[in-house]
Design goal:
This protein has 310 residues and is an alpha/beta fold. The protein folds into two domains: 2-165, 3-Layer(aba) Sandwich (Rossmann fold), CATH 3.40.50; 191-309, 3-Layer(aba) Sandwich (Rossmann fold), CATH 3.40.50. Helices cover 27% and strands 25% of the residues. It is built from nine helices and 15 strands. The chain has helices at residues 17-26, 41-48, 69-79, 92-105, 207-221, 229-233, 264-270, 287-290, 299-309; strands at residues 2-6, 30-37, 55-60, 85-89, 109-113, 115-118, 121-126, 131-136, 142-146, 162-165, 196-200, 224-227, 254-258, 275-280, 293-296. A seven-stranded parallel β-sheet has the order 5-9-4-1-2-3-10, with helices on both faces. The longest helix has 15 residues, at 207-221. The protein starts with a strand and ends with a helix. It binds flavin-adenine dinucleotide. Flavin-adenine dinucleotide binds at residues 201-203, 228-231, 242-247, 259-261, 263, 265-266, 269, 279-282, 285, 298-300. The site of flavin-adenine dinucleotide (FAD) has 28 residues, from helix 6, helix 7, strand 14 and helix 9.
Length: 310
């Protein structure tokens, strides 16, 4: 089977999420990458070094500067004439592009896979990760999004793929236009690739408290900062901090849940973390059921003490 992986990048480097997709694709067969963008030589050169990749197909066109689904999808569909499966990371952009590809190919999408069981059978989470479904497809062409935390990342070095230009073939007049984006500039590591995450919940009670209590601890640990939906909804931190079913799915080495009850929708986003540390004043809080280390007490006392001692 020949697979085509959409490479997520920022115009300069390949995003980490792509590496896990390469691993998933390699379980199906030969792996080609698609680097679509404007001025993509550096990204293509980096992509060509990823272990296990046969070809890097580039589509270089100003219209592709931003990964709009309406522009990328027709391009993918043309390239799918030579490929059997299209795979993208289950990130915001991947989840935007893949359904459009599936619709244009008139096949179903297999979303957020956790494993490749065989060439047509996959597992995926349902009910916020409380059950794992095994799904089998009879479609001739596969369109798949991949949960990045479920697959090892392919080695970013060691490959010698051939770079092939497709000259932006297949670009059609798009029905949507890029207007602008507001990107939060973070001094800290990105949530989805951080090794350590410190997350705060509703218990922080205000934005001021969140910044004063959570951030110094995260800074000491070189950690990314996350939050529960309750903390985000209350406006303590921006939406892109949210971890969980409707937020980001993370699996760091260490996840600290501070003043977070452990609702299933939050657990759906972090329960695969290697070590979970919970601080909560309620000893019956559900978060303690998944925690490896639990501290029962007032976070406003414990966290500053911990930060000071580190
Ligand atoms: C469809 C749907 C999708 C959702 N998606 C998400 C999602 O993606 N992510 C997410 O997080 N939630 C999600 N939710 C919401 C989820 O159900 C919970 O409401 C939310 O996670 C609760 O956030 P919390 O734990 O911060 O707040 P709470 O549940 O209010 O818990 C606060 C915790 O802090 C503790 N506490 C209070 N004061 C202190 C103190 N001084 N010191 C120590 N501990 C203290 C309390 O004992 C309590 O356990 C979703 C809900 C729905 C219905």
């Amino acid at each position: 089977m020949k697979t085509l992986v959409w490479v997520e990048h920022d115009g300069k480097t390949v995003k980490d999420a792509t590496l896990a997709v390469v691993t998933a694709a390699s379980k199906l067969g030969e792996v080609d990458l698609l680097v679509a963008g404007s001025g993509v030589d550096a990204v293509a050169a980096e992509a060509a070094k990823i272990a296990g990749v046969s070809n890097v197909l580039t589509a270089d066109n100003e219209a592709l500067e931003h990964p709009l689904a309406e522009t990328v999808a027709p391009l993918v569909v043309k390239l799918m004439a030579d490929h059997d499966a299209f795979l993208a990371p289950a990130t915001s952009n991947g989840k935007n592009i893949a359904p459009r590809v599936a619709a244009l190919l008139d096949v179903m999408q297999i979303s957020d896979i956790l494993s490749v069981e065989s060439a047509d059978t996959f597992t995926r989470p349902i009910y916020a990760g409380n059950a794992i479904a095994t799904v089998q497809t009879s479609d001739k062409k596969l369109v798949i999004t991949v949960r990045g935390t479920a697959f090892e990342k392919a080695a970013p070095e060691g490959g010698t793929a051939t770079v092939v230009s497709t000259d932006g073939a297949g670009l059609e007049q798009s029905v949507s236009t890029y207007v602008g984006s507001e990107i939060a500039k973070l001094e800290r590591p990105e949530l989805t690739s951080a090794k350590v995450i410190v997350s705060g919940g509703r218990a922080l009670a205000s934005s001021e408290n969140f910044h004063a209590v959570i951030e110094p601890l995260a800074d000491k640990l070189g950690a990314a900062v996350g939050a529960s939906r309750a903390a985000v909804d209350a406006g303590y931190v921006p939406n892109d901090y949210q971890v969980g079913q409707t937020g980001k799915i993370v699996a760091p080495e260490v996840y600290m849940a501070i003043g977070i009850s452990g609702a299933i929708q939050h657990l759906a986003g972090m329960k695969d973390s290697k070590t979970i540390i919970a601080i909560n004043k309620d000893e019956d809080a559900p978060i303690f059921q998944v925690a490896d280390i639990g501290l029962v007490g007032d976070l406003f006392k414990i966290v500053p003490e911990l930060t000071e001692k580190l």
